[in-house]
Structure formats: structure tokens, C-alpha cells
Amino acid sequence: MSTRNAVVRGLGGALPRRVITNEDLSVTLDTSDEWIRRRTGIVERRHADESESTSALATTAARRALDSAGVDSADLLILATSTPDQICPATAPKVAANLGLDGIAAYDISAVCSGYIYALATASWAIGSGAVGSALVVGADTFTRLLDPADRTTSVIFGDGAGAAFLSAGSADEPGAILASTLHADGTGETLIQVPRGAGSFFEMQGKEVFERAVSAMSDSVNTVLARVGWATEDVDSLVAHQANRRILNTVASVTGIPESKAEVHLDRVGNTSAASIPLAMTDAAVKGHRTPGDKAVLTAFGGGTTWGAAAMTWPSISVLDPH
Ligand code: COA
């Protein structure tokens, strides 16, 4: 029996103009380029200005994903973000309207750094079920607006940005097919990554515990989707793990047995862009051109909630614009 799968046909990214280097942060914080590079692998990140709202970045990334796919509309737009333009209403309808797609289904998903995996999985279910024919899956966050400028543990890690994919119905043997996904949440860890209730609160993260949970949750979910599609770890050509810390990427690779050289690394240039991190890392890998259509790829993320998940897909056959 032939199956109906969601297939990635286009990718796009968008980054704020302003580059903040480790040296820039060292002027006001008790930190150093050497510490940040050694402990996180990050060299620079982008900070959004007033005009570069979450919806503005999301719109640019989504438009580029449509262009990359050579299409001009989609049936569904899911925006993964935990930094919407405002709490109410959702930001996705505004992004759809900016694209001239008013009237389509559009909604936000809030799962912090796992948001993109959540959005991608739910879009692939919607397409796979036949409910819709195509979807724009966008991840966009502007977390730097919520950081305590005096907190060196969060200020050095986070950056702003957006990434997007266009997916439409196809078959499992097409390059870009989403083949399996797994999603999880454990709200008992809600205070590990949070913006506490109350006006003027800053983003807070328990870095050490998040590090440990991220490694085990991402490794377990990678193994789950690999088992589902019947791939051995040595078959994996591309590990697109949420870009939070280079040491987390390396540890997930070593725990799962996927060679470190297969891990996509984009955090050096953008830091942790939360829901944008996976589509931006995929866009960057496509720009670098070091993966081949049909390659076996595993995507995974861990984030606030706590939430985590993974997806297995084949590398899409696409051309992309460099967002840098
Ligand atoms: N510059 C210099 N020193 C710093 C620093 C910085 N930016 N941040 C922390 N330090 C110091 C600490 O104060 C501590 O000093 P002490 O030993 O005198 O107490 C020392 O460095 C080690 O701190 P620690 O918290 O153990 O560092 P770490 O190696 O765990 O790195 C993070 C901190 C935040 C980079 C790391 O824990 C991390 O990446 N966590 C996961 C983040 C993540 O995945 N988030 C996304 C999920 S959504």
C-alpha cells in the first residue's frame, strides 16, 4: 500500500541585521570570547531591533521557503514561537496575511526550543491524513528581548531569527519525505526554563540541569525515530539537533553513536535561536551543500515545558538563499 507523506520542498531563513560578537558581550558582562567559545561553541549571534519583530522575521523566512519551493501559497501555516508579537492574538494569522494568504488555517505552537519539531510533526500529520495538501512550517523567536542583560549564562547563548519549510503531499521515497516523528512533554520540569509570571520578568534557565536533560531526551527520541524507520545510527548522514551548545551536540552524537561529523553546526554564527534553530541549521547545511538529496537525516530538540522530540526524514532536493 502506498503511503501519503509530507515532503519538504523548500527552506528559508531570516536573520536580524545586528551581529553581536562575544567581544561585544565581554564589554558589559564578566565573560570572555575564550570562555564562550570553549563552553558553548558560539562566536556571534544576532539581535533583533524594533522593526525586526517575530512576525517580520517569520514572514521573510516563510516567503523564502515559498520561493525555494517555487510556489506562492499553502493550505496551512503553523508558527512555532514562544515570543509572539503579543500574547493575544496569535502571530501566525499576521504572518499568513503578510504573505497574502489570508483565509488559510494559521496558528501558533508554543513549545520553546522544541517548537519546530512540534510544528513539523503536526504539519506532517495534517498532510499525511489528507486534511491539507500543503503547509508552511515556520519557527521564529526573538528571545533576546526577554533576557536579563546582566545574566551572563543566558545572554551569551541566545540569538534571534526565523526559519521555515514548505511541505506538500508526496511519497516516502521522494527526497525530503518526513518518515517518522515522536513528541514528548514533562511539565514537572516547568521551572527549568521559564519567564516567571509577573510584569518585567526576565527569561531564566537552570543551565546545568537543562544540559543533562537535553542530552538524554534528545538521544532517546533520536533512537525512537531511528527504530521506527529501521535505520542504524551509522546510516545517519545528517544530525540536525537543536543548536543550544556545541558540547550538547557532541554528547548527543556520542551517546547515540552518530559520528560527530554528521552533526550540523550553525550555532557558531547564530547561537540558540529557539524555535528557529532547526530550520536555520537545515538552511545553513543546504547553503554549505554538504548533504545530498535522499541522505538520511534525524532532527531533534529539547526545550522549555519541558518538551522534546525527533523526526526522521530524507534530505530534500532544494536550492536556498543564504540568510546571512
Ligand atoms: N562567562 C564566564 N563564566 C561563566 C559564564 C560566562 N558566560 N557562564 C557561567 N560561567 C561560570 C559559572 O559562574 C561557573 O563559575 P564557578 O565555577 O566559579 O561557579 C562556571 O562558569 C561553570 O558554570 P556552569 O554553569 O557549570 O557552566 P556550564 O559549562 O554548564 O555552561 C551553559 C553553562 C549555560 C553554557 C550550559 O549549562 C548550557 O549550555 N546549558 C544548556 C542550555 C540549553 O541547552 N538551553 C536550551 C534548551 S532550550
TrEMBL record:
Gene3D superfamilies to which the protein is assigned, alphabetical: 3.40.47.10
Residues of the Beta-ketoacyl-[acyl-carrier-protein] synthase III C-terminal domain: 226-315
Residues the record marks as active site: C113, H242, N272
Keywords for the protein's UniProt record, in alphabetical order: Acyltransferase, Cytoplasm, Fatty acid biosynthesis, Fatty acid metabolism, Lipid biosynthesis, Lipid metabolism, Multifunctional enzyme, Transferase
Subcellular location: Cytoplasm
Catalytic activity entry: malonyl-[ACP] + acetyl-CoA + H(+) = 3-oxobutanoyl-[ACP] + CO2 + CoA
Family: Belongs to the thiolase-like superfamily. FabH family.
NCBIfam families: fabH, PRK09352.1
Protein name (Swiss-Prot/TrEMBL): Beta-ketoacyl-[acyl-carrier-protein] synthase III
